[in-house]
Amino acid sequence: MMVAIEDTIDIDRVYKYLQCVEAGAINVFIGTVRNGTKGKQVKKLVFEAYEKMALKQMKRIAEDALSKWTLHKLVMIHSTGEKMPGEAVVAVGVSSAHRDVSFQACRFLIDELKGSVPIWKKEFYNDGSIWVNAHP
Asked: Is 1.10.443.10 the CATH number for 2-133?
């Protein structure tokens, strides 16, 4: 299991970690910064985390997924710091014997992460900036 908060997400590293000969399925979700929200152009986002608590919650979610599905490997990474449109900010993924399990587990990971991990973002627009929960 790879659970981390990092400055950047190396998507190749995520995929290589999930690979194993027992897996018939690898499912990865990559969340990126989009260039607009609520009708405003996004210039950049800045992510902050209460790292100790965030990692504890991410590990709990990962362990929950491992108890619900038969998974070979699991990844949950969220980045912090300044991110520009197009950059990856979150990656979750699993490898399993079959695709249905991998889809279910991957969806569970991102939904639970978004719903309960203490991470915030500051959105910078052309007309100002605001702090919001990164995962409402």
From this structure: no
